[in-house]
Each structure stands twice: as structure tokens, then as C-alpha cells.
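Final report, closing paragraph on structural work. Over the funding period we assembled a curated collection of sequence-structure pairs, and we close with a single example.
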Amino acid sequence: MVQIHEAVTEALESNRCITLPEFADICKIKPTDRVGNCIVMSIDGSRPSKYGWQPTAKDLIRSDWEVID
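Its predicted structure, as stored:
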């Protein structure tokens, strides 16, 4: 578990996603620099969101981010 900037860096380098412990079995976030920015989707990769994820300040300072497939 790491800070969000560390998780995003690793996810971008390995083409993976990030999540938080309470969402690890439900959804994941694909960080991108494309239109739509970060894409929230079901844990199996289905149902990607139409709009980019907008984190709260609390999300940004958490230190329990995880990198997942």
C-alpha cells in the first residue's frame, strides 16, 4: 500500500489499475492522460465509466492505495 502518486506511477509503467482496500473486490481505476482521464470500472474491467474520476482531498492523501490488474 502506497501514496496515490506512487500507485499511479507503477500502474502506468505496468499498464495496470489502482484501487483502495474497501473497493478491491468491487472496482478499480485506470489512470490515463486520455480524454476521460481516470476511468472507473468494475473489478472485472467491465462497465467503464463515461466520465473521469474526480478524487476528494482525502482520497489524494491516503496512503493505502494498491496496484492491481
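The longest strand covers residues 27-30. The helical segments are 4-14, 57-61. We thank the funder for supporting this effort.
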